[in-house]
Amino acid sequence: MNKTIQNFFSEKRYRQWLSLSILLIYLIVIAGAVVRMTGSGMGCPDWPKCFGYLIPPTEQSQIEFSPETPYKEGMVIIVDEELRVAKDDFFSTKTFSEKNWEPYTKHDYALFNVYHTWTEYVNRLVGALGGLVVLIMFIFSLRYIKKRPWITILSFVAVISMVVQAVIGKIVVDTHLSPALITFHMIVALLIVGLLIYLLHEVKPIDYRFKSNKKMAQFAALLIILTLVQVAMGTQVRQFIDHQVDLLGYPLSSTWLENGPLVFIIHRSYSILLVIAHIWFFYQMIQKFQHPKTPYYLLASLFVITILSGVFMNYLDFPFGSQAVHLVIASLILGVQFYLWMRLRVALKS
Question: How are beta strands 101-103 and 82-86 bridged, if at all?
Fold first, then answer.
């Protein structure tokens, strides 16, 4: 029996669930980007339910007062362009009675758009699925509890991080999409990805094709730092654009960056430094150390896409989807960089 359990909780299964966890986190990043791209962040004005429903409404009539209808505690309706929350379970009379309802006080957003609602709902479903997969990954990590306990401990940290990420998501909704909190939400997602990639690296066999020396391993770490600086500046630019959207609206996208902040100019020019540094790194790794070309070609392709999306935003007035692509690709770049750095570090010890 013990052997059967041991075979079930195999290292291979742990790696499979770990790889799936990484994939799901990136899907969460993509789903979040789609929510931002479509302006669906407030599609569900409450959390964790959506207008008080486990499965959100599909018609405006479902969130309007209905006479002689059973209501459950926490259900949400829109009355006079304000949200009202059912205080308790009750059966409504023919007329609306304030005594059964209380105002929703966390924000004053009270609009219903079925497309925004379901976009945000799918985003939450992907997040819940990601949390479930990470939890299963942790369960399979228990096989390491005696011989490599840090694997199990860090797997549990990943579970806690997913819970924290969910709480941050709730606060983002409650604060009516605070730009600073949205940025923090993204940073936490990147940290979770980094943790999972580290765990995957720790349980994968050493790939002796990734030869290195101390200088190149240090340079790989420097590239990660340089990219993080670029991402940090990008978040500042994005917060400025969010403010411009609120101030000017989407029809005036061509004017969003007319008086852009200095950080935008630096962010745009800084990309040249990143490209030059990566070209040199790619050349050294492929030509001098004879590394497999695939990960470097992948990283180069991601850089091309993120630069093009930045160019489109700057010169083509933010075409639909360009911001989302820019954000998602940047997170993928960091993931590939971190994995390569981990491989190079191991190569020094082998």
Answer: antiparallel
Give pTM, 2 decimals.
0.86
For residue 166, what are the CA distances in angstroms to 56, 121, 286? 18, 13, 41
Q: Extract the tokens encoding 185.
A: 């939400």
pLDDT at 210: 79
Task: Label the pairing between strands 101-103 and 90-91.
Answer: unpaired
Asked whether the beta carbons of 67 and 93 are under 8 A apart, the reply is yes
Contact 185, 168 (CB under 8 A): yes
What are the extents of the domains in the chain? 1-43+113-204, 60-103, 212-350
Helix (H, G, I), strand (E, B) or coil at 256: coil
With 0-12 CB in 10 A as exposed, 13-18 as middle and 19+ as buried, what is 248?
Answer: middle
What is the rounded distance in angstroms from the CA atom of residue 9 to the CA atom of residue 161? 23
Chain segment 118-155, per-residue pLDDT in tens: 999 999 999 999 999 999 999 999 999 988 999 999 99
Domain 60-103, CATH class in plain words: mainly beta
Query: For the chain, give me the number of helices (H) and strands (E)?
Result: 9, 5
